[in-house]
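thread: overnight batch results

M.L. [08:02]
morning all. the overnight job finished for the chain we discussed friday. pasting input first so we're all looking at the same thing
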Amino acid sequence: MARTLASLIVVPLLTLTALHAQQTPDPTVPLIGENLIVNGSFELTPAGPVPPGEVPEGWANEAYGGRDGQLSIAEDAAPGEGKHCLQVTVTAENPSSGVHGPFMEIDPTQAYLQSGWIRLDREYPRSGMNLGRQWFDAEQQSVEEEQSRSYTYVVSSANPGAEWAYYQQLLLPDPDPADGKFSHNEIPSTARFLRIWAITYNWDGTGYFDGLRLQRVDYAAMARPKILDAFEQANVEALRAEIEALIDEVPADHDLHLRTADLLAEQARINREALQEAERPVNDWIADENRTPALLNEMNDVRWELKTFVLLRGA
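M.L. [08:03]
and the structure it wrote out:
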């Protein structure tokens, strides 16, 4: 699937594996509403070991059916996340554990931010700490048989050492479901539910999860200023005025006139949409955000074509 400017804007947040953990949440991502994950900071469960077969309040089941590892609520917390966190201890004999969340209803046309804090009890050469989700359709069946599509990660094998590290990923609608391609930050078009998971597998050590969140993102508030700033920096009003003066010198049925008129109409529409407060699908914002730089380049190119046409016509 073609990469969008939207994905480039938030690198490395949209990568499969977060290459560089952040120290704090990104304030430039405008969020809507409360955390959709119940007990994402593990404050609702008393400190101490979680009994075998049980999970912290708000979580649905232990990963791997409780066969492996040990879950505990530790009296430790990531910055700003209260007093508790989830501790996961695994060994070579029992190398996997963690928690799965309940089914959470989502809208595949909206944008979301999934985030969380991770740390280890000490430095390790490698880690098995993973934060991600699984997508389900309206019948709560996995969206595809291939796990590479239904299971996607915020971070895989996170290895931040003994200090808390923050990871986040912006989840965006699939821009072209028909092409059969996907990126790991894309929401499948058939998804209606997801389940969060915080797990470790094939590892021997102790790690901690805290501040796990899933929140709606006001994508318009991200895209609108970028579009309008691009037009302002390009001095688009002066550019339009120059083009409009030149286009009158070109016959109305000429290809150059027609192409120029289309560009002017497209720029006017994008500008109008960016100024309005109306609700729009996220993919519409992404399309306009991605189109704006190329559109401005094409407008500059056509200005020189018009100038050349007028100059040659008068020669």
